[in-house]
Amino acid sequence: MRTGVIEAVHSLRRNPSYHTANGRNNYMTTPNIDEIFPQSMLGFRLKGSSIFYSCTVLEADKDKIVINTPILMLKPFEINTRVELRLPVISGAGSVLFSGTITDLSADSLEIRITSKQDHVEKRKSIRISSEAKIKYIEEKVPEEVWHTTYSINISHGGIRIYSARFHQEGDALIFQFSIPDGYSSRFLLAKGRVVNVKKVTDYTSQYNSKSQGYRRYIVQICFEGLSLKDYIDILRYINTTLKNK
Description:
- By secondary structure, the protein is mainly β.
- It has helices at residues 3-14, 229-244; strands at residues 41-46, 53-61, 64-68, 82-88, 95-105, 109-120, 129-130, 134-139, 148-155, 159-164, 173-182, 185-200, 218-224.
- It has two domains: 17-120, Thrombin, subunit H (Beta Barrel); 129-244, predicted glycosyltransferase like domains (Thrombin, subunit H, Beta Barrel).
- The chain contains two helices and 13 strands, in the order H-E-E-E-E-E-E-E-E-E-E-E-E-E-H.
């Protein structure tokens, strides 16, 4: 594996993701702000945006949450900017959405005063296209960098659906690499995502493919986390070009 890829993987691994003392956010019901664990992972977005970026809780108390500054956002932050934070919850609607405003900021953290919270169900706003691309991925929770190979089923700007020979829990973080067409060649992407749905393929033996024996045991839906602006635009361009050529 190229040195640049190794460094990029290590960078993605260093970005905390839902880990607490017991390994992950373990919220069974909607928590109050002061019940949110430090180092929990939230999704962060500006009010009105459809894209969440990964961030880590540094402190949570009463009506305020302090997070690390999302590193992939290009737009500068300002005091009183309206934002939203999404916290996954194992049961119920799947996540809770906190709304609030930025009350203090520094080079590496944001303080947000929370004004409301509600159960959150994300409505699909993205178009999916069929895409059988070769995927290589590792599990963030596994210390050893063991890469697994499989193939995608479809892709959107918000996530990707893949086959897997391995069972993954909802909420598991994966770091994966794949290529998308870029003009007359292809461009390599290294991204991070989170498992949002897993379905067992009951007749996987009848779907045997010579590319990889038994790799179709499960269908895994992955939500992208914190795509760079360039990756996001390139994926959109790939989807739109594919639709036009149909």
